Amino acid sequence: MRDPLAEPSDLIRSVSRALRVLESVGRAPRGLTVKQIARRCELTVATTYHLVRTLAYEGYVIRREDGTYIVGLEVADRYRELVAAFRGPPAVGETLRRAASETGYSHYLGRFVGGQVAVTAVAEGPRSPYLEDLVPGFDEGAHATALGKSLLATLTAEQRFRYLREYGMRPFTSATLTSSETFEADLAAGDRRGMQLELGQFRQGVACAAVLVSPDKDMERRVVLACALPANEMMTSARMVRAKMLATARSVADGIAAEQH
Predict the structure, then answer these.
(1) Which GO terms describe its molecular function (predicted)?
(2) What are the pLDDT digits (tens) for 113-164?
(3) Number of neighbours of residue 141 by Cβ within 10 angstroms
(4) Bridge-partner residues for 254, per DSSP?
(5) Is the pLDDT of residue 3 over 60?
(6) Among 63, 150, 184, 213, whose Cα sits 20 to 30 Å from the Cα of 161?
(7) CATH of domain 87-260
(8) How far is CA 183 from the centre of its chain?
(9) CA dist., res. 233 & res. 109, Å (int)
(10) What is the pLDDT of residue 1?
């Protein structure tokens, strides 16, 4: 939700409206007519028609034969650019892929992007359950994932409280932590363990572990490494998972440092 109180004084409304149109079309995989878009965006049909024609010309929406509009291929191009920017140097991507290949577990990188916890890179492993939500750019459920917990653990208690109050603690499963008190206790246990964990809190039957890669005074430069595996395997392999993740985290940190020098 956009905060109306945070609206800039120099907001270009035509650009804002075009983005609202694009978002509405993106949420409707079967396509929308101009009238449907106008109704969803609370715009006049005439205004919507001009915005849609502009977006179609630029390739961000496509008009189908039945008159409905769907998302255009330019959006996919922008997403690929986002993924490349998030991934970082080639050595980091190679480290992730090697870890996924050697362990069989999917590995993820995450960091704060615009103040929100986000997944920034993924390498799929064949032994991990497929988690369709955890793709680069995913920025929900920080309280329910080990990746999110590891990043939130770098904040002060007050900063965490404000974060969780703003983004909420949605119950993804019956095991999801939904109170700040239980969440703080869970983070403290993770700190003592040297690895943040979640067992079935984001997806039933799936566990996730995470460790910090790069601490930094600038929160946007903090990076964490996570991996997902079946919950029953985590119960018996936590120490091995931690050892392998710490080794991978050191390699990721070296790759990031090499690019900065």
Answers:
(1) DNA binding; DNA-binding transcription factor activity
(2) 989 999 999 999 999 988 888 888 888 999 999 999 999 999 999 999 999 9
(3) 22
(4) none
(5) no
(6) 213
(7) 3.30.450.40
(8) 20
(9) 21
(10) 47
Rounded to whole angstroms, the Cα distance separating 27 from 205 reads 29
Q: Which residues contact 187 (CB under 8 A, 6 or more apart)?
A: 149, 152, 153, 160, 196
Class of the CATH domain delimited by 13-78: mainly alpha
Q: Which residue has the tokens 């002060």?
A: 156
**Which residue(s) pair with 212 in the sheet?**
224
Neighbours of 235 (CB within 10 A): 10
| Spatial CA neighbour of 186 closest among 241, 139, 246, 146 | 146
Tokens read off for 79: 């997403």
Residues in Cβ contact with 221 at an 8 Å cutoff, skipping those fewer than 6 apart: 111, 214
What is the reported pTM? 0.78
| CA gap 52, 76 in Å, rounded | 18
The least confident of 12-16, 38-42, 103-107 is 12-16
Tokens encoding 86:
């998030």
Q: Tokens representing 71?
A: 């998302």
**3-class DSSP state for residue 39?**
helix
In the chain, where the domains are located = 13-78, 87-260
The amino acid that residue 171 corresponds to is P
